[in-house]
Structure formats: C-alpha cells, structure tokens
Amino acid sequence: MTRPTGVLLRLHAVAPGLGTADLARAVSRTLTGEDSPPGGWSAGRRGRVLRHEGTSAEVTGAWDGPELWLRHRGEPAAAAWATGLLDAIATAAAGADRAAAATALPAATPADPASTPSAVPDTDAPAYLAWRALMARWQVADHDLAEITAPGLLTAPLPAAPSATSHPPYPYRPEEPVFVFDHIGPPKPPPGWLLREWFAPDAGLYHCSVASGSRLSVRTPDPAAGDRCAELLAAWQTLTARYDAAA
User: Fold this and answer.
1) Residue 186 vs residues 111, 137, 162: alpha-carbon distances, Å
2) What's the pLDDT tens digit per position in 204-227?
C-alpha cells in the first residue's frame, strides 16, 4: 500500500519580463480571486507577503525580474500542484480575467491520491544506482527507505534487479522512512520563468533527488541533520562519478 504524506513545499522563482506590481496582482488574483488580497499585503523579510489558506507568497523586485517565494502546507504539496499554481499565476499575469485564473488554479488535494499518475523510475540512472549502493553500504534497513514515484505518495524501494513483470507501487507500510529518493523532481516553471529553489520532501529526514541534469540534491527539514546531509552528498557524488565513468 502507498500512503499520502504531509509536506511543506517551498519554492523560489523569478519572472523576467514582468513588473513587480504585475506579479503581485497575479499572485493575489490566483490565490484570492481579487487583484488585492482582503486586508492587503503585509511586510515580509524580503518584500510584500500574502497568506491565504495554507499558502504564503512573498513578492519582491530584483534586477533580473520580480521574485516569488512560495510556502505551502497541504495534502499533497508536490511538483504537479506547484506546476499548476505557477501556470495559473503566469496566466493571470498575462491578462487573463479572474474567472480564468480561478479555473486554472489546481486543487490542493486530489479526490483520490492513489489515482495520481506515477513516474516510471529510471533504475539505470547513475544517481539512482549510487543512492541504492550508498544505502547498501551504510546498511540502512528496509523500513528506513522509501521512494516517491507519484506526487504525495511513498512506495517501497524498487528491488535491486526488478523483474520484467514487476512494477511499483509495492506493498509498503513504513513507520517513518529516514532516506527517501524522489523520482518526480521539481515542478516545471512557466515559459520564460526561472526556478531558483525547490523543496518539498514528502517524508523522511533525508530527501534525495536529481535537481537538474546530473546535479544532485540532498535536503532535510531538520537543521541539525545538515552535517549528515553533507556526508551523504559527498559519498553520493563519488559513487555517481564512478557509475558515469562506467557508462
């Protein structure tokens, strides 16, 4: 069985070609249905902040375009949801009316999370092979491992040598997995936008993924686990280089 997981999504994007006021208006229109949020924007650490139904959006100006920081708690807060939200904001910024923007806004919770399309894991990818090898080297127990093959869902780790007839998800009842490998990856930003940062660990103390190309990413929601993250990343990079060289 797979199970939904509670997460905190964080992303940072830049929207070149838009004005700061245009982006702020589009964010408010998408989240609240109004050009200005009820009660107005509040002051944040970087710029103006809007908080609405579990989502916090902060907008500020920059030399290469206005910047957007988003934080969201929900079930699930995953790449597919974030992609839809960014697309809705871009649609509103392009001049769409309020009804169109509201229609474009994705639901935070699908009616049936188990029906969410799954990714097809690339079990031959150097990063994934390195992760599996590292987990075996560190003798991590099966109940401390999980993989993300569908937004907001955990599955059991794939077998070391999957058979031609096997496919995820496998029966799985983790207590609270420690090491998670994310096959979904970051959301896709609207055309012309730049995704600076993305973090949405579905579960686990160490959230491992391939950020872009062959760049590796290890994140943790626990600041005290930073040193272990650095150790894991260094070992992962060494193993990945070996798999790349052997390919």
Assistant:
1) 22, 28, 25
2) 788 888 866 567 888 887 888 888
